[in-house]
Amino acid sequence: AQKVTQAQTEISVVEKEDVTLDCVYETRDTTYYLFWYKQPPSGELVFLIRRNSFDEQNEISGRYSWNFQKSTSSFNFTITASQVVDSAVYFCALSESGGGADGLTFGKGTHLIIQP
Amino acid sequence: EAGVTQSPTHLIKTRGQQATLRCSPISGHTSVYWYQQALGLGLQFLLWYDEGEERNRGNFPPRFSGRQFPNYSSELNVNALELEDSALYLCASSLERQGGDTQYFGPGTRLTVL
């Protein structure tokens, strides 16, 4: 069965600091997909990125970057020069191939607090 | 383009009652997923509907049920409500029924059971 672990329950940093959110996953499938979502206090999950298991290239989008390493089963998320608006709960999620049969498996989430 | 919409925003019920939650997917999306986010339990997959059929369900009892209408909107019904059903219920939609297809979420319905 698949599993996603986000060991950091809460992280608090001062604005402009860089911060990395860790995500470790377990799956038996060779084809799978990894996601990051942001959940602000309003509650809606906002999609950030999707990665398939065959694409290990790191990705950068503005201040956000993602490091996917199959060798360590990790998909870490870094925010550079953090801002107060980045404060939210961030979820890492896994989907195995097979028609979306089991929905997404989420980690417990990391609550990120950016202090001004 | 409108995102996933859910109604109502908040719902208050008492134990034993039934709750009905509604979801409209993004236009063109045929798959609808329901998730429960209860305090301390995280986000858990509830149900998946595609083309009007229930395709799979998570580890939830049969009193959690639903349906998908011809216009792909969906309804989640929770019968015989229990206190532990209090949670944020999130609906998501995706373009296709492929594993790994990106799911886009709505704002959720917060259900409180008294």
Give keywords:
heterodimer; A: 116 residues; mainly beta; six-stranded mixed beta sheet; four-stranded antiparallel beta sheet; 0% helix; globular; B: 114 residues; seven-stranded mixed beta sheet; 11 strands; 53% strand
Q: Compute the number of helices of chain A.
A: 0
How many beta-strand runs of chain A? 12
How many DSSP-defined strands of chain B? 11
Which percent band covers the strand fraction of chain A?
Answer: over 45%
Element order of chain B: H for helix, E for strand: EEEEEEEEEEE
Broad structural category of chain A: mainly beta
Q: Please estimate the helix content of chain B.
A: under 10%
How would you describe the overall organization of this protein?
The complex is a heterodimer of chains A (116) and B (114). With 116 residues, chain A is mostly beta strands. Chain A is built from no helices and twelve strands. In chain A, strands 2, 5, 6, 10, 11 and 12 form a six-stranded mixed beta sheet that branches. In chain A, strands 3-9-8-7 form a four-stranded antiparallel beta sheet, with no helix packed on it. A two-stranded antiparallel sheet of chain A has the order 1-4. In chain A, strand 10 (88-96) and strand 11 form a beta hairpin. The model of chain A has no long low-confidence stretch (mean pLDDT 92). With 114 residues, chain B is mostly beta strands. Chain B is 0% helix and 53% strand. Chain B contains no helices and eleven strands. In chain B, the strands form two sheets. In chain B, strands 2, 4, 5, 6, 9, 10 and 11 form a seven-stranded mixed beta sheet that branches. Chain B has a four-stranded antiparallel beta sheet with strand order 1-3-8-7, with no helix packed on it. In chain B, strand 4 (31-38) and strand 5 (42-50) form a beta hairpin. The radius of gyration of chain B is 13 Å and the shape is globular. The mean pLDDT of chain B is 94. Classes of the chains: A mainly beta (116), B mainly beta (114).
